[in-house]
Design brief:
Helix content: 25-40%
Order of helices and strands: EHEHEHEHEEEHEHEHEHEHEHEHEHEHHH
Low-confidence stretches: none
Number of strands: 15
Largest sheet: 7 strands, parallel
Length: about 375
């Protein structure tokens, strides 16, 4: 079985890192097509031996990308095309239909209540999505929360399958020596209380609340992992708060596990999430987690993630202060990490591919 994964870009975002983590565990022969740019995740995927095809899309209305994708799909004779993220789903499903690919699957990583991939939902965006959805065979939701949103959009429940995101827990296991090395590289003293924030630097992530919480925490440092349009504003906010020397902008990183080893807590104040991969990764690393919205935790049975606590934005500073006053704490990975093991995700997707190809029973 030959599978082409089509994704909008391969910078170090959640969906992109998720694809990178998944590929080694799929038994199918996989290749990747990226619509725009290159990015650190593309480099990591290629180093692992998976071919990456660059489509060279120049903008949202570059319809030539559809023809280039269709020619790639026809020429390399894929059994399955699996698209990821909004633009890739719209263009990739159309190209797959034109190329007569037998099975067309899309994963929805970033559909929020009011935004999709950082842009506000409009009628035209929703209409285009629904039209392109009809060109595929099934849509994978990364959480029951996303499945409910898709259904409210108008996607029939019969065309939606929930396959949660996966995490390689072993890759995030705590390593004291790695913690020391990473802190030395970042110029962090061992005594520093390091608050971590992981994700795109965009408004919905609300990393500004973490910067505002810093001034009263004398020995605290904020380590932000990711990039995005809000970085200039966040840097200015740190200067205004007199905390610019205590905020580290680490940028995009293919090795989030090492950076988490240097943290003492992960704070995830995002107002809207579709899953919350960084939260599960932090739990695998033994970190306590303070979050506002996280379907990955909220969709599980009670007690599956005891290290994660929901904290309203107006209580975040007080909670961080309480943690900073205690000795550093590393927790055992909870049941949630096992439930979201990337191997389970890979097995579910491969059964789905085979079912669509008529090579497996229709009942899961």
């Amino acid at each position: 079985m030959k599978v082409l994964h089509v994704i909008t870009g391969l910078a170090a975002g959640g969906a992109e890192q998720q694809l990178r983590s998944l590929l080694p565990y799929l038994r199918a022969r996989c290749e990747v097509a990226v619509l725009t740019g290159h990015g650190v995740v593309a480099d990591a995927i290629e180093r692992a031996g998976v071919p990456v095809h660059h489509v060279g899309m120049r903008g949202n209305r570059d319809l030539r990308a559809v023809g280039r994708l269709a020619r790639l799909m026809r020429g390399r004779r894929y059994d399955v095309v699996h698209t990821h993220l909004y633009r890739a789903c719209v263009y990739g499903r159309l190209a797959a239909r034109l190329a007569n690919v037998p099975a067309i699957v899309a994963t929805e990583h970033s559909i929020g209540r009011e935004h999709v991939e950082g842009r506000r939902l409009t009628r035209s965006i929703r209409a285009l999505y629904l039209a392109s959805e009809l060109l595929g065979h099934l849509t994978v939701a990364v959480s029951p929360t996303v499945a409910d949103r898709l259904s409210r959009w108008g996607v029939p429940r019969s065309r939606i399958v929930v396959v949660p995101n996966g995490v390689d827990g072993a890759a995030f296991g705590f390593d004291a020596a790695l913690r020391r090395r990473t802190r030395e590289r970042l110029g962090l003293p061992e005594s520093a209380f390091v608050i971590g924030g992981v994700g795109r630097l965009e408004p919905s992530k609300r990393f500004d609340t973490l910067i505002r919480a810093l001034p009263p925490l004398e020995h605290a440092v904020l380590l932000l992992v990711g990039s995005g349009s809000c970085e200039p504003r966040l840097r200015e906010l740190a200067r205004e708060a007199g905390a610019e020397h205590r905020v580290i902008f680490a940028g995009e990183s293919p090795d989030v596990g090492a950076l988490m080893s240097a943290m003492d807590v992960l704070a995830a104040p995002s107002v809207e999430e579709t899953f919350g991969v960084a939260v599960v990764e932090a739990l695998a690393s033994g970190l306590p987690v303070l979050y506002d919205t996280c379907p990955a935790v909220e969709d599980l049975p009670p007690g599956s993630a005891p290290g994660a606590r929901r904290v309203a934005a107006d209580r975040l500073a007080a909670e961080l202060s309480g943690l900073a006053a205690r000795p550093p704490l590393r927790l055992p990975p909870p049941e949630a990490v096992r439930l979201y093991d990337v191997r389970r995700q890979a097995d579910q997707l491969e059964r789905l591919y085979l079912r669509l190809l008529g090579a497996a029973p229709t009942e899961e």
